[in-house]
Amino acid sequence: MNSQTTKVLSLLVGAILIATLPFWAGDQYQLHLAALIAVYWILIAGLNLVVGFTGQLSIGHVGLLSIGSYTFAILAGKMGVDPTLSVFVSGLLGGLCGLALGLPSLRLPGFYFAMATMAFSMIVNEIVLAQVDLTGGGIGLPGPMFPKPFDSPIGFYYLVTAIALFVTWLTWNIARRMWGRAFISIRDNPVAAQAVGVPVFKAKLLAFVFSGITAGVSGAVFASLQSYITPDTFVFELSMFFFVCIIIGGRGSIIGPFLGTVVLTALPELVSPLAKLGNFFYGLLLLVVVLVVPEGIGRMFEIISERLRPRIVHREPITPDLNRLAKALKGHE
Amino acid sequence: MSVMPAELQAINISKQFGGLSALDQVSLTLRPGEVHGLIGPNGSGKTTLLNLLSGYYQPTSGSIKLGDEDLSLASVQRRAAVGVARTFQKPRLLPMLSVLENATLGAWSHSESGFVASAVSLPSVAREDKKFLDQTTELLHGVGLGHVIHRRANLLDHAEQRFLEIARGLAMRPSFILLDEPAGGLTTQEIEHLSQVIHTLRSSGIGVLLVEHHTDFVFRISDRVTTLNVGKMIKHGASDEVRTDPEVIRVYLGA
Amino acid sequence: MLTVIVTGLAIGMLYASIALVYNVMFSTSKVLSVTTGHLSMVGGVFGAYIISVLQMHWLWGLLGAVLAGATFGWLTDVLAIRRVLARSDEHLWLLSTLALATMVQQGVGLWWGTEPKPFPRLITQEFGAGLMDQKFWLPIGMAIVMTIGLEFFYRKTMYGKVFIAMSEDAFAARARGVSTDKIRLLSYVLSGALGGLAGFAAGQLTFAFFALGHTLTLLGFIALAVGGLGSNIGALIGGAALGLLNSFASYYFGGEYQQTIAVGLLMVVLLIKPEGLLGAKNVRPV
Amino acid sequence: MLRLTKLAVRLSLATALVVSATSTIAADTIKIGWLSSLTGALSSAAIAENQGVQLAVDEINKSGGILGRQIELLTRDTAGDPTKAVNFAQQLAFSDKVHFVIGPVNSGEGLAAVPILARAGVPNLVIGAIDELIDPVKYPRAFRVINTNRQWISTANDYAIKVLKKSKVAVIADTSGYGTASAKTAIEMLEKAGIKPVYSVLVDNNKTDLTDEMNKARAAGADVVMPWTAATGMLGRLLNARGEIGWNVPVVGHPAIMAAQIRQLLNKPEYWQNAYAAGYVSTTFSADGKLPERTQQLVDKIRPKLGGGEIDILFWWVAMGYDTVKIIEHAIKTAGSTDAAALQKVLENTRDYRGVYATYSWSTTERNGFPDSNMAVNQANTFKDGSFKLAPR
Questions:
Q1: Confidence check: pLDDT of D386 > 90
Q2: How far from D161 is each of A283, B4, D139, D201, CA to CA, in Å?
Q3: What pLDDT was estimated at residue D22?
Q4: Of B58, B173, B73, D375, nearest to A331 (Cα)?
Q5: Which of A179, A324, A329 sits opposite B115 (nearest CB)?
Q6: Are A6 and D22 in contact (CB < 8 Å)?
Q7: Angstrom distance (rounded) from CA C193 to CA C109
Q8: Which ipTM score applies to this complex?
Q9: Other Cβ atoms closer than 10 A to D345
Q10: Three-state DSSP class for A168?
Q11: Which of C7, C251, C254 sits opposite D201 (nearest CB)?
Q12: Which 8-state DSSP code applies to residue C41?
């Protein structure tokens, strides 16, 4: 079985598992957990382009999530706008805020950019707290439900899973083609990226705005899942969590961060002492991964398997096929 | 090709870093379909000139022209778009990607698929990507890397990395390719393959700038050679003319 | 009005000291560590613990704070910097220092409790001392002493000169037999001690509070960026500007927009003069 | 390349992890969920209430449980984070399938968790004070044990206006869910009584210096300061600021003003003078220094558990924690079962149930069980064993 069929097969198995989850999930709490994973993945899939592929360290995406949540709660809740429309507006506003944050900060070196994103999430929290009559300040706002088919837990699970799969499909399309290569070139070798003509700043901005849109949409459905949002819901710990899922899952891949998200969401709920540790656990996990296997746990399986049965890399001499080269060069004109 | 192909010209280029003058009034013309050697001892300004031509530095005075377009202040990306490719002394590759992916990145300037089009995977995007991958596969076989196409770049040896960077440059469908000490660290047999590849480039109309301090290799395959010393041009002319020039010999054999 | 200036200057000097600590670490490792603000937090918490809980003399508290900071600085180098610097990937040290900072902050939170606890009086002084109250003048004095001390250290002492040599060109320094790893470790221990000291001195202003870590890392960084990376005088100016701006803003517009204003200042400076008021322009990329 | 089969293995491993949380099947015990914020910013109240809850559960279990069934207390620490409160509420309702839930303690978490428990139909004893937590129609099985925020505020307002005869009020609240809601309610009720506050502000409860706010209040001509925050740290710093600027203005407000932690935060003991707070008849010493008989019994019962010495936490928190479990016992015994609808019916018809903390009455339309008559105003610095003397009339 060559790699192509095993790839399709495992994706099929995964899809079936996800599609039938409501029927074999133990109870509604685990369904809630699965929906929470899907909601987080909508944001993390977009953020993966920024952190995993383009290598820009954004630790402030909880700010964009809260913008999405509050936009949705205000539109669909207080102003009674149709929820589906509100999700689009939340995504749009998330994208706009991503643009507003990205424009000044994406030109800055790594540490400056990280600090700017951290500051952004603090500012969002401050503004939400201060604008009491719009956002309810400390009291917060109820997160409205979606209409008929999606108001039941199972219906809502399918809605967020559908959105999550769509966003995954989008990021997969980008990652496997020219834009994906351009992003990775920005991450691993900006000088080479310039040399082949990649517009470094514009590409970083596009990835960031895309992650803003997904964060906005994720925020909208997060508000509905939580049924109530207050400023305390959007803590710095969430930014750390999103970001650690990607680093642990493995940068430059999509399945790695997805597995990171599943494990890191499920783990604290199942292993209760971990919940108390909260940030300490994420910090420890991140430090271990960065020091031991910076490529992420996803790649660790490969590293171990390579070490168990090292493939002998036989060196063949380079033998140019000159007329094939000439034909290829001529082929372009 | 109806129109006379444009030349890449550096005209009276000077470059100062603070007080230090790295280049002083140097001119050099790179014609399509010609191999132009650029030699000189270390610190003579070879790499600085190459960085000026490829846009990583801006000249302090003088200008760089491609045909009639003035590139002196153009960005690196702009030069890539008008067909000026380059390699680096220390190959700059993407370790986590395969050889094929690394080389295909070169075709970036020719890709018309926008971000959104790629996201929703329009048929045009898929077609274009397939075309690029096929072309790059041909180029890779052409330069002799056919056997490692799917290998991850960080598993390549030194020579393979050099040829991969050349393949990436060729994927940019360049009119000119600036090679920064390509022969460094290669075996004689690999240098032989390199010169065959360079000859093929020349015959297909690409202008090659060869920055090297392997002087015999340069003289053997260059049509014309320019010699630099301490930022000044001391000799320019046909390959064997420059080889026998007393001034060049003095600089190389040391006073 | 005068109280607003004095409080602004006092908290500004804490930000300035943290910016100084950033400079010391940056000089030898070219790394801006996320743990910088947490050094001061640890200093403040340990100082308060030794004096208030263990009822010991404040000198022991000072020693404890400096030691705690120095150990944390040592840990930062050993755990988060050394192995990571070996790999050239620029972002890795950012991840490792962020991880360590988060662990320390949450660890202190679990041990010390999550509410800000009062910091003991160091010098016996009436509480109603108003403007002359020690809680303002300790951090201001500390920042000035630190700046002078660092200038003296760089100018006069042998180690100081080695620090400068390393920050100019680490490669050349190594070529002359300087064991850069040892020097960098020394600079992190020194910056840890200075950070602990700054946190201890400003304890009465900020209280001993575990969540100070991230805030001080950010605000110290803003003072550094405004003042200009690498310049100690710039750090003082940046810190003072930030402190005064915050206290004026919170007096006239109410306290809700503290962070927004501070970051507004950062963004304005970075847009106009990215390398800050007195920072050095960075050199050629290729 | 077997890379992809490894992929499938990893995928199923991860999803199996999610499934593995099957709940322990213990049919016979009565399961009570206790959503307490034992860590996090506002943990002092929850820690005290937890003492009362644990004592009541141990007592009942020792005496053979309820209807012969032992109580299984499932304590979940929400750390004051609404997201954790929602997750735990879901876990308690659907995974652990508890029969009753006590809490959450803080208002922010309550606003998030109460709707979840209502949708799951789980009877819920609410111990958060803000008004939005109770709604007989939307949350039919949510019964409030603690007094309402309005009762606190009206008691404090009446004392400030009618007894102290003050008219220029400064309202200082924190930016938490509780603080924002209370400031709004306090200002509304003052304006209804014809008093327009001269100064009002929302302050982050981690702000370390309140001198600015107190100076502004004095400049605005305030003659009484009414703080509405549960954060003892912030109240300590407010009293310190009042002392340091030498402004002898009465402070009347939230019961946390009387919390023992304030004593350690004060720069000088006398800064606790001229400070009064809404309190309870059940934790007020009578003229001859005696506590109500039921309160004294509980004090003696719990003292050994708190180290035998002087009780240094607000005793009404402990009494309320104790009462919540006793109310559950009363409901299950009267209903004769743990069926949610039956429990709801019993509670709806409960009149004058005598607890330690208060005497509770609920009805089909009234879910706030705490009677106005049980409110009182205490003097802060008369703290003894968690109870207080009545404030001067």
A1: no
A2: 52, 97, 35, 20
A3: 43
A4: B173
A5: A179
A6: no
A7: 21
A8: 0.84
A9: 14
A10: helix
A11: C254
A12: H
**Burial classification of residue D124, based on how many CB atoms lie within 10 Å of its CB (0-12 exposed, 13-18 middle, 19 or more buried):** buried
Structure tokens, C92: 């890795």
The answer to whether D291 and D387 are in contact (CB under 8 A) is: yes
d(CA D257, CA D195): 23
What is the Cα D315 distance to its own chain's centre? 12
Q: What's D269's DSSP letter?
A: G
Residue keyed to tokens 């995954």: A168
Which chains are within 8 Å of A by 3+ CB pairs? B, C, D
Torsion angle of C-alpha atoms A19, A24, A26, A29, degrees rounded to 10: 20
3-state secondary structure (DSSP) of residue D218: helix
Q: Chains A, C: CB contacts under 8 A, how many? A: 107
How high is the pLDDT of residue A110?
Answer: 82
Given an 8 Å threshold on Cβ–Cβ distance, is C114 in contact with D40?
yes
Q: Which residues pair with B70 in a beta bridge?
A: B65
Question: A312 and chain B: CB distance < 8 Å anywhere?
Answer: no
Residue whose token pair is 């009436």? C126
Q: What is the set of domains in chain C, with CATH numbers?
A: 2-121+134-272 (1.10.3470)
Instruction: Return the exposure string of C133-162: e unless at least 16 CB atoms fall within 10 Å of the residue's CB, then b.
Output: bbbbbbbbebbeebbeebeebbeeeeeeeb
**What fold does the segment set B8-253 form as a domain?**
Rossmann fold (3.40.50)
For each of chain B's 255 residues, which pLDDT tens digit applies?
445 578 899 899 999 887 888 888 899 999 999 999 998 888 888 889 999 999 999 998 999 999 888 988 899 999 999 999 999 999 999 998 999 999 999 999 999 888 999 999 999 999 999 999 999 999 999 998 988 898 889 888 899 999 999 999 999 999 999 999 998 888 888 899 999 999 999 999 999 999 987 788 888 888 988 888 888 888 788 887 877 888 777 777 654
Cβ contact C263–A122 (<8 Å): yes
Q: Tens of pLDDT along A225-274? A: 988 888 888 888 888 889 889 988 888 889 899 999 998 888 877 766 66
Question: What domains can you pick out in chain D, each with its CATH number?
Answer: 30-148+314-372 (3.40.50.2300), 150-287+376-389 (3.40.50.2300)
**Paired tokens of C261:** 């204003």
Query: What is the rounded average pLDDT of the residues A164-171?
Result: 94
pLDDT of residue A311: 67
State residue B127's pLDDT score.
Answer: 93
pLDDT digits (tens, 9 = 90+) for A1-59: 466 787 788 888 888 888 888 888 777 788 888 999 999 999 999 999 999 999 898 98
D174 DSSP β-pair partners? D203
Contact A191 B190 (CB under 8 A): no
Backbone angles phi, psi at A309, to 5 degrees: -125, 80
Q: Are the CB atoms for A142 and A73 separated by under 8 Å?
A: yes
CA R_g for chain C: 18
Do the chains contact at A185 and B105, CB–CB below 8 Å? yes
Is any Cβ of chain C less than 8 angstroms from the Cβ of B9? no
For D304-326, b/e burial (b = at least 16 CB within 10 A) is eebeeeebbbbbbbbbbbbbbbb
CA dihedral sign, ordered A316, A322, A323, A328 = positive
CB neighbours of D267 closer than 8 A, spacing ≥ 6?
A: C127, D240, D243, D244
Stretch 203-222 of chain A: residues touching chain D, C-beta under 8 Å? none
Q: Which class for A8: exposed (0-12), middle (13-18), buried (19 or more C-beta within 10 A)?
A: exposed
Q: How many CB pairs under 8 A join A and D?
A: 160
- B residues 43-72 closer than 8 Å to C (CB): 51, 56-57
**What pLDDT score was predicted for residue C16?**
93
CB C276 within 8 A of CB C234: yes
Considering only the C-alpha atoms of chain D, give the largest distance between any 2 of them, rounded to a whole number of Å. Answer: 87
Pairing of strands D100-102, D30-36: parallel
